[in-house]
Amino acid sequence: MSQVTSVQAEIASEDADRAILYGFIGRMLQAAPSNEDLQAIRGLQSDDTPVGQALAGLSAAAESATAENLSRAYEDLFIGLGRGEFVPYGSYYLTGFLHEKPLADLRATMSRYGIERSEGVSEPEDHIAALMQMMEGLISGDFGQVATLDEQRQFFVEHIGSWAGHFFKDLSATDTDAFYAAVGALGRVFMAVEADAFAMTE
Fold this sequence. Notes:
The chain is mainly α. The chain has a single domain (10-115, 123-200), classed as Orthogonal Bundle (TorD-like). 65% of the residues lie in helices and 0% in strands. It is built from eleven helices and no strands. The protein has helices spanning 6-9, 13-30, 35-42, 50-62, 67-79, 90-95, 101-113, 128-140, 149-159, 164-172, 178-200. α4 (50-62) packs antiparallel against α11 (178-200) and α10 packs antiparallel against α11 (178-200).
């Protein structure tokens, strides 16, 4: 039997679910999923909640997707020749340019929480995938301790809530690839749920 750590014991089941969803969305936007990933996504459980319906849509989109096709779609959407269809960085969405004040503000917050950029990563830290994974880590305690709800809300408001919903809305409307449009729909719904929940705790 595996032993539950003290950090794990501090996390309520609904918060563990939130962390998992943040991490999942982050991984979908960090790189194209493998065929093994797609097989798991096809088997996702869903319910009648907005997030559950979005997960069902993603599962359905995965039915006809292949890792090879999604690798090409990821390249077209986020990398391209010079730039992709989307520029998934907070600074760009908020100012129209990369490496602007939103990135500097994020780096200051990362330093405060002891969050370091992974070795070998060249992209600015305000990439949407990195921000999703930072929220995952704050909720789950991966950065040393579980962030309080106030700390989670502050991070979300300062670095995610002001632009991620717009990014996911744009991605959900793409006709480049149905799977990534479904990822966008899931992100848009989840960001709205998180924003509403945080607003209720103020």
